[in-house]
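User: Structure please.
Assistant: Input sequence and predicted structure:
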Amino acid sequence: MGFLFASKLDAARAQTRRNQAAAADPAASAWVSANAGTGKTHVLTMRVLRLLLGGTPPERILALTYTKAAAAEMSKRVFARLAGWVMSDEPSLARTLAQLLDRAPTPADMQRARQLFAVAIETPGGLKVQTIHAFCERLLQRFPIEAGVPPGFAILDEHERSALLSRATDEMLAAAAVQKKGSLWRALQTAIAYAVNGGFDNALQQALAELGAAPAPAGEPAIAAAQQRLRATFGVRPDIAADMIIAQLSATFADDLLAHLVAALRAGNKSDAKGALCLNAALVASSGRQRVAALADFFLTQSNAPRERLVTRKVSDERPQIAELLQVAQTKFVALYGEHRSLMVVEATIALLRLGADVLERYSAAKARSAALDFEDLVGK
């Protein structure tokens, strides 16, 4: 068993080396996707080295990474390999290049390998291994007019970006609070009402992050269109309002029918008596929302799934019409209740969309006044 496992492991390693060599071949256009620590930087290093060995001038190579640490590690690895080639003896260098090139090196390969360290060092600007943001910044600085950015723009770091966003958020909240009417105020009230455990700040920050990754709908027509798309996606009627659904849910049973059902269930066993309590709470409820909540306790489980049995067999056998009536009512109630919950999602989403769009508009105006770009702007532009 141990020998079989070792054989499979050796085969897997050999296949990995073949895959890495194929991805490092400069003649191939490759997309490498793998978990952290599995050798992506190693493959990229091999590819750069093979480009250099193949005669590509260092100034014609551009390697982009996401973080400064990754760029520094990449550059360190390349120069460490080049320096090692200068100091290696002939047999060691031949073995190293054979493993890299997946073939025996030629005398020209050996000679160029020993020269590459000096060539890379003497290249004006050095070997270009940089972050995607640094590359974008450099390109925008050379062509600001073509890209539609302010010449000599400043770059906002994360602290400055957070400070500007916080200021824009405060301005939005102040504007909504001063008006105490209008769409912005209503959106704020809606978002706060749906925020769980005071999580409004977190919800708004998540909304800003999502909106920052894609253009936010601007203006009432765009927001209205987004709302209609959401309603269609979640199966909510185009013009239905939450209060209208509550009224329809409240009308599941008329008062006289509710009283009749309460009496019928009280005549059953202990389980039926619990159901009677729920229906009686609906009967005496002082508002439509309280009545709906009581009916939900009767029709649904704590996880909002439809109850499999609404009455016991005793009531079902003695009053089959009651059981059938409750089953039909449950089907109607579940559909309406689901639509109401979906509408809550739509309303909360549109509220956050409206608030977030306002914050980002103020944030963009602040950046424009400062002639500044953030990291997302660099890539977008």
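The chain has a mean pLDDT of 89.
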